[in-house]
Inverse folding.
């Protein structure tokens, strides 16, 4: 059985972004599963250079071109790769437009809670023997 998990956040400072990123990592997400969108990525350059976190410049020239052709908000166009609902795209695109940093993490992984419990009980019984 596969379990789908995702975490989404809008934060308004680099410090908040770092705190939230550490929480997301602590919840079991790998760096390559995390996306960060901002219209100003200069303060996030260390993430881009020293981690596998995917940092995206929202509103870049390609987004602007697609926005012009489709007549959609440029920051909503930036989020197209995430396959969000139209309501989510509008909400988070507007947040980016207002200067927020958008964090997104998702993955699918085997649901292993029950087997681990059973394995732990098995290991405990073997340790007692």
């Amino acid at each position: 059985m596969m379990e789908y998990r995702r975490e989404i956040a809008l934060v308004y400072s680099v410090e908040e972004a770092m705190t939230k990123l550490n929480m997301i990592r602590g919840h079991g997400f790998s760096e390559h599963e995390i996306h960060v969108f901002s219209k100003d990525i200069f303060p996030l350059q260390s993430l881009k250079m020293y981690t596998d976190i995917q940092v995206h410049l929202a509103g870049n020239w390609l987004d602007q071109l697609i926005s012009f052709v489709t007549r959609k908000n440029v920051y909503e166009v930036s989020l197209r790769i995430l396959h969000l609902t139209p309501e989510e795209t509008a909400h988070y695109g507007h947040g980016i437009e207002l200067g927020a940093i958008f964090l997104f993490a998702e993955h699918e992984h085997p649901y292993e809670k029950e087997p681990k419990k059973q394995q732990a009980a098995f290991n405990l019984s073997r340790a007692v023997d």
The first helix runs from residue 14 to 26. Helices lie at 14-26, 45-50, 61-70, 74-78, 86-97, 113-128.
